[in-house]
Amino acid sequence: GENVEQHPSTLSVQEGDSAVIKCTYSDSASNYFPWYKQELGKRPQLIIDIRSNVGEKKDQRIAVTLNKTAKHFSLHITETQPEDSAVYFCAWGSTKLSFGAGTTVTVRA
Amino acid sequence: GAVVSQHPSRVICKSGTSVKIECRSLDFQATTMFWYRQFPKQSLMLMATSNEGSKATYEQGVEKDKFLINHASLTLSTLTVTSAHPEDSSFYICSVHRDRVFQETQYFGPGTRLLVL
Predict the structure, then answer these.
(1) Is A49 an 8 Å CB contact of chain B?
(2) B46 vs A1: CB contact, 8 Å cut-off?
(3) Residue ranges of chain B with per-residue pLDDT less than 50
(4) Nearest CA in chain A to B100
(5) Which of B23, B29, B87, B106 stands 20 to 30 A from B38 (CA)?
(6) Low-confidence residues of chain A, pLDDT below 70?
């Protein structure tokens, strides 16, 4: 699959603060950009996604922004809570997805 | 959403044996399923695309003769790890592709943890 760079690899935030994760992709043909949350030993869970014809999408405390020109998209989590602690993966593609390397998010109480 | 099951959830086998993992789409018919492998603290790596009624499409570097995929029905895809070796120990996850109007989504199974001794 194509490369997706994901930064940072680890992120520690104080409860209540915001967390931002950014991914950069290379294939301009991609049109679907989901974000997954994976807890230890469990399956990835879709938390939000965005398509290429939209620049921003929000669902309560979670938002995703997409810049197709720059080929990057970001996950924003506001008012973080301890249960937000997990590994987050960005992905891109259409039917077939490639995944970023993941970001381990730790929310400190 | 979609409900996806995998069986078994965990399996331990001896080196040289074969292991079959099943992925089932429980609430809709899936023409396309995907198989991923995830090593500890790493990302998901796509192994192959499983197409109902036709041959699977393997990603570069994945041996099709070692990882046999069969998608004989619209609700079941199987992955068989043949002649397993310790380096095949990993977390194997399937996903089901579901088309929706203006949206394409993958739904993941719970995964199968394989340990080869």
Answers:
(1) yes
(2) yes
(3) none
(4) A95
(5) B29
(6) 1-4
Say which of A34, A49, A95 has its CB closest to residue B97.
A95
| Lookup result for tokens 């086998």 | B13
Q: What is the pLDDT of residues A54-68, one digit of tens each?
A: 899 999 999 999 999
Q: In the 8-state DSSP scheme, what is residue A47? A: E
Nearest to B18 by CA among B73, B52, B65: B65
- What is the Cα–Cα distance from A91 to B41, expressed in whole angstroms? 17
Contacts with B58 from chain A: Cβ below 8 Å? none
Nearest to B43 among A94, A95, A99 (CB): A99
